[in-house]
Amino acid sequence: MEKEVWKWVLENFSDEAIANIGHNLGIKVPGFRQINHQQKKFKLLRPKLIQEAVHPKNSAMLKDFFNKIAEGADGLAEWRDKSTDELLESIGVEIPPSMLFSVLMSSEIEEDIKRGQEIFIKLKEEEKLTILERQAEEKREEAEKNSEQEYEQLKQLQEEVHQFQQKISNLEKKVKKSERKNEDLKEKATVAQVGFEQEKKQWREEKKSLSQEMQALKEEYGKVKNKLADVAPELETLKNKMDHQAVLLKRKDDEIARLNALLLKLKTEQDRPIKEKNNDYEQQQLATSSEQEAIPVAVIGDPMNTRVQKYKRYDLTIIEASEIHDERTNETLQQVEQIWLLTYKTPRGIQKRVKSLVKEKPIQEFATFIDLENYMMKG
């Protein structure tokens, strides 16, 4: 069922998102040299990438990739704390189904995964999966379209205001020019009184006409200014939304860059010649195993790797998460000298249970198998 849910989730992601996931998981598809969603052949490559991503060998990396995105984004991981009823009310309205399922199915808590599967089955039986996904996409597109229209309207209003201001400024310049002309006419009054009176009359008429035009423009400007004042809060809200979206986009870009760097580091660590170091360490273990008694260790979570049996310095007792409530497990924890907790194999609730059982003993925690093996090699 997990594979079916993940396949549906990825099929509803964009080509760019699928290409990004393929890069991060290091997926290689025979016949394709590179993963580029802008190439025409990507239509053929896309289903193969999805098939490889949900393959059991890549499922752990896929879940880890989406878990880091969920825990790194603001408020995204909080969807895991909501009840099934709350999720059913919000899906398709506040969050797309594909995004919600990626958050629930990538959780380290089994209950979150089961809740995601139950919701998926319910919506699938009701034939609502595609409808809700399309509904969420239409809401997002409509919101973007409305924001763009509002922004263009505000820009147009600002341009109209600017044009009115230019007209008023030009009229004021004309008035000042007329006033200077009037002063010149006064100086010439003694020389040409008749001509002055005629020009003065003409200036008065011109001034009256200009004053009326300026008054009309001022009134129009007042109307536009009031309209702009009414729209100003919406402009500020739109600007805040755009700034918030820019911050979220930058955070996502930074998170993807960080995850890419982390995956590259992990891949480089895995490609190191571990076998050579293991062979040297095994020779040392064989030389000293006859002289030292093995240290009894309880390992919480099965590492699922036989390489741990090569380190004879430790006598390992593997305890599954399901066995933690067993009375014999408690006796084992009290008898061993060391306790190792594999956090990548153990749910958070079981981790708390282990720490409450052995408060008097130190617990060594390991986030990956590489950390565990490096610790055993150092002895």
Outline the structure in words:
The protein is mainly alpha-helical and 379 residues long. The chain folds into three domains: 2-127, no CATH class; 146-271; 275-378, Rossmann fold, CATH 3.40.50. Helix content is 70%, strand content 6%. The protein is built from 13 helices and four strands. The chain has helices at 2-11, 15-25, 42-53, 56-72, 84-90, 97-105, 110-125, 129-187, 193-271, 274-289, 327-335, 348-357, 369-378; strands at 295-300, 314-319, 338-342, 363-366. Strands 2-1-3-4 form a four-stranded parallel sheet, with helices on both faces. Helix 1 (2-11) runs antiparallel to helix 6. The protein is elongated and about 130 Å long. The model is unreliable at 286-290 (pLDDT under 50).
Uncertain stretches of 5 or more adjacent residues: 286-290
Over all CA atoms, what is the radius of gyration? Answer: 36 Å
The total number of structural domains is 3
* Main sheet record: 4 strands, parallel
Q: Tell me the β content.
A: 5-15%
Q: Which H/E pattern describes the elements?
A: HHHHHHHHHHEEHEHEH
Helical content (DSSP H or I, runs of 4+): 55-70%
**How many extended strands?**
4
Physical arrangement of strands within the biggest beta sheet:
2-1-3-4
State the end-to-end distance.
41 Å
How many H/I helices?
13
- The overall pLDDT average reads 80
Going by helix content, strand content and strand pairing, the class is mainly alpha
- The backbone outline, from C-alpha atoms, is elongated
